[in-house]
Amino acid sequence: MIDLSILPVYLTAVVALLLIPGPDMLLIASSSLSYGKKVGIFASLGNATSGLILTLLAAMGVSALIAMNPIALQVLRLLGGAYLLKMGWDCMRTNPVDAPEIEQQTGLAKTLYRRAVISNLLNPKALIFFVLFLPQFVSTQSTATSGEQMLVLGLLLNVLGLIFNLFLVSMVGSLGKSLLKNEKFRTNQHKVMGLVFFILAIWLLASQVPTPVIS
User: Where are its TM segments located (predicted)?
Assistant: First the structure.
C-alpha cells in the first residue's frame, strides 16, 4: 500500500513529532496524574479515535477542503476554544466531595475519552497537520492511490501515537499514584484539570491558524 523505501524517514518523523510536547500530551499526562492510569488510558483512546477520524477525512480529501476555507478554520478554532473553556469551568464548579474513588472511575474515564475526542476534532491545527504532513510521504512509485497511502500512513501514525501515549500514562500514572491517596490533593484534583482545560483553551484561541496552500 505504501512505498517501503520512505518508511524509515516517515517513522523517524513520527517519533520526533511524538516527542514534542503539545496539547494532547498535556491533556493525557494531566488526566493520568489527577485521576489515575485508567482515566489516562481512556484519554489516550479518545485521542486515537479523533486521529482515526482525521485520517479518514484526510484520505477522502475532506480535510483539505475545510483547511482551504479560512472561515471554517476560524469557526473550528472558536468552537474548540469555547468547548475547552466550558470544560474548565465545569471542572472548577465541581464539588470536591464528588471526586471519584480510585476504584470507581469508569464514568470519569468515559467523560475524559469524550472530551479528548471532541477537543482534538475542534482543533484546526490538528486538521491542518494531517493535510500537510501525510501527503509529504505519498509516493508516485506505489500502485496505491494517494488516498489509500494516506490512510495507511495515518493508521500507522495513530498506532504509534497510542503506544507512546499509553507509555506516558504508565509513567505519569505511577508518579501520581501517591497523590491520589492524598486527601488534600483529591479535594483539588478537579481544579487541576480545570486549570489544564483553561490553558488548552488559551493555547488554542491565542494561536494563529494559517490557511495551507495545497498544490
Answer: 6-27, 117-138, 150-172, 192-209
Count CA atoms within 13 Å of residue 112 on its CB side: 31
Gap between the Cα atoms of 149 and 155, Å rounded: 10
Provide the pLDDT for residue 161.
93
- pLDDT at residue 215, rounded to an integer: 46
For residue 116, give every residue at least 6 positions away whose Cβ sits within 8 Å of its Cβ, in sequence order, or none: 24, 27, 28, 42, 43, 44, 45, 46, 47, 49, 50
Q: Is 191 domain-assigned?
A: yes
**Do residues 135 and 146 touch, judged by C-beta distance below 8 A?**
yes
d(CA 19, CA 62): 28
**C-alpha cell at position 122:** 475542534
pTM given for the model: 0.80
The answer to whether position 212 is within a domain reads no
pLDDT tens per residue, range 163-179: 999 999 998 877 766 66
